[in-house]
Design goal:
Layout: E1 8-11, E2 14-17, E3 29-32, H1 35-40, H2 43-52, E4 58-69, E5 76-83, E6 88-89, E7 101-110, H3 111-114, H4 118-128, H5 143-152, H6 154-159, H7 165-169, H8 187-193, E8 206-212, H9 220-225, E9 233-240, H10 243-265, E10 277-278, H11 282-317, E11 328-333, E12 336-344, E13 347-356, E14 359-360, E15 379-382, E16 390-395, E17 405-406, H12 416-422, H13 425-434, E18 438-441, H14 444-449, H15 458-467, E19 471-484
Parallel strand pairs: 3-4, 18-19
Antiparallel strand pairs: 1-2, 2-3, 4-5, 5-13, 6-10, 7-9, 7-11, 8-9, 8-19, 12-13, 14-17, 15-16, 16-19
Amino acid sequence: MAAPAGIRRVDEAVWELPPTFRPGMRVPVRLFATEGLLGEMDEQVFGQAANVATLPGIVGYSFAMPDAHWGYGFPIGGVAAMDVETGVISPGGIGFDINCGMRLALTDLTEEEVRPRIRELVDALFERVPAGVGTKGFVKLGESDFADVLEQGAGWCRGHGFATEEDLDRTEERGCLAGADAAKVSARALERGRNQLGTLGSGNHYLEIQVARPEGIADPALAASFGITRPNQVVVMFHCGSRGFGHQVATDYLEVFLHAMKTQYRLEIIDRELACAPFRSREGQNYFAAMKCAINVSFANRQVILHRVREVFESVFHRSPADLGMDMVYDVAHNTAKLETHRVDGERRELLVHRKGATRAFAPGMPDLPPAYAETGQPVIIGGSMETGSYLLAGVLSGAASFYSTAHGSGRTMSRTKARKQFPGRDLERRLLAHGIYVRSASYAGLAEEAGPAYKDIDAVVEATDRAGLSRRVVRFTPIGNVKG
């Protein structure tokens, strides 16, 4: 579509909508995109980003990342920072799959070693890492055990043999947000989440075997510092979140907020999907504590999946994970709201940063980075479609312009319904195999929904991300095997 009237170009990949674009806007909208990507954005992206700009306490700008597309409340790819005293917290700015995120692990194997065993490997992963709607994991938890997972996150995995200390070091927030409180979670959420640890789920969630080919290395020195040191090195990337637990937490508190807005806080909003509560209110703090439970269980979920992946590689290649070099690169979250300190107008301020379909991208030298990445900046993982490829990037100092936030994936351009009609799953499976990608999927319908043409061009998204100064490209990965939810 054509860009809306009133939009102006700020830089080569930065655009702005002024507060006059929509009545009630407190701040401008900043969109990060090349001209081509801007033209491909849904009309709703501009409207939703402008709606976000009307929320109380918003600081700086309402942001839209290069992969932005229509979502619930916020656009997917939307970022907004709120003043902690005057601002609000909104589930629509976080999403239903709380802490949906990406994890990347290394191997010392090459494509030449893995390719002959790709079917055996993917079949074993499909068996050991349950995918699809309603699947249950192998970790059996009682109610008190599950409460411990909610409050301890990946730390619980460390105590139960599913994680190493280095795994925690290389997970955002060490895999646990302090202040999670299982008492703030409904019985229905507990019921939905208790048996899902170690599962991929459905939708756009996947587990992929990828190759770092020489032509995909954009920055050899930085790639080596992240562990990419061999030609055609094989890595494992996966994307999943808090499953039904996070969805229920969001659903529960949207109802709480809609009621409290009318009866207690007299909050008027432009879109009911932006239901919110003052961050310092009782309702706001209860949701914040429950949301942290969902963040923590998602970190634990991805950690248990990594444990299973290591088991599969050990059984297929008859070498231990340590001998296979199966160390983590990083685990990054999207769909979160987190307290962070940022510089605004020359002063350091504590802000509540909502990132919905956006990834944190801390720059070199920033606190909260593991020592291994203090000089390189935070690894950033941007997943593409199973037909194209994915990227490893790094945080940069210029990322301060977006509160150190960056894109998280390709971004859909086609509805799931349209994709199912246009790309029959069996045909897609055959086409992928012809291109050297072996796929196992929980359903052909789910496979069809994730066809490459249903997504934006990952290379264009990453180019815009780089040109806008949000993060810097390091390696492009090519898929050779995929387990699809």
